[in-house]
């Protein structure tokens, strides 16, 4: 079921789930309008819609309509909840493909909810499963209270039944967030630094390997990834940059939160997810940005009508408009296609992890220099966390602390190497 993003006159983005006929899904739209819209922004609502679509897929597979059943006072059984739990563990694409090729008899078998029934499917992360069940639980609770509101006034037990249904669904969410261990280490989520170095060589505007023909497009793309490489900005923050966010005198680029901006006509508005901040960049980068603005962007007539920094250069419907997320992905994939065996591991968020690694190395260098210079103070762990929070916009220390694990791991690796070298040398001497 498609999601349509509507832009209201005040700039608010409203994601809307449509049915097969292109009509807004009544109950989902009511839930979004009355419950989610108050506290959630576009991206959060869009994620919620994907979870509710997964619920509808469960209903399609099992030929059920939970809302109709709830209207008759029949709440999901424990077996239904277990089935939903297992369903939420499975990747949507795998389930859709399976559903299209199965008979009705096979569908009934899946509804039995044996954990073995999901073994052959691609699964999603614990966090994704957790979020799906959370959204489904609160959605069914909301709809139940609306559908049965006239009966709730006279039947107190109904309220307990509704809350019990919600609690049973939430109780089946996976325990733990899965946020510990190597899988959560940011330094394992991105390719080695040399891979990013090669990417930057390819995207350089003067590189013979650069896949783009236009000089202006090469400059724009080079600047996009140059800023990402050094600042760790997210792609949404890059696409949301405005000309006024650049301080040409002090060499700073600012990240400003502009949710539901009226001047942004993109249905899927790129926005900052973290705190506002400003990050200093190299003078050479600022000079190149100035050249792009004055000599390239200024000559694209539609670009003058809006403040966004990076624009579409290709003539056509989107000429001069702010660069879209889909265009960003296309640019990234085009660059990776030059050397897929090397660059294919790169994901857009990987630039943020790589930037953190580069910051770690700079902090190491500063601390090394402080050992031989009495006028310089070393940067301790607490200060490092504060530096990361300032540069990357985090509010919590925990978001920054995870990157400090690199110090412990590297020190452990060094000690282990030294110990092995010692015993290897000792063994040689013994012989």
Q: How far is the N terminus from the C terminus?
A: 72 Å
Total domain modules: 3
Number of separate strands: 5
Percentage of residues in DSSP E strands = under 5%
**Which residues sit in consecutive blocks of at least 5 with pLDDT less than 50?**
103-116
Explain what this protein looks like in three dimensions.
It is a single chain. With 431 residues, the protein is mainly α. The chain has three domains: 3-171, no CATH class; 192-347, hpI Integrase, Chain A, CATH 1.10.443.10; 352-430, no CATH class. Helices cover 55% and strands 5% of the residues. The chain has 19 helices and five strands. Strands 3-4-5 form a three-stranded antiparallel β-sheet. Strands 1-2 form a two-stranded antiparallel sheet. Mean pLDDT is 88; it is low at 103-116.
Summarize the structure.
With 431 residues, this protein is mainly α. The chain has helices spanning 26-36, 42-62, 66-71, 78-88, 92-100, 104-110, 126-147, 149-152, 156-171, 193-203, 215-231, 235-239, 283-296, 325-336, 340-343, 350-372, 381-392, 397-401, 405-430, and strands at 3-7, 13-17, 246-247, 252-255, 277-280.
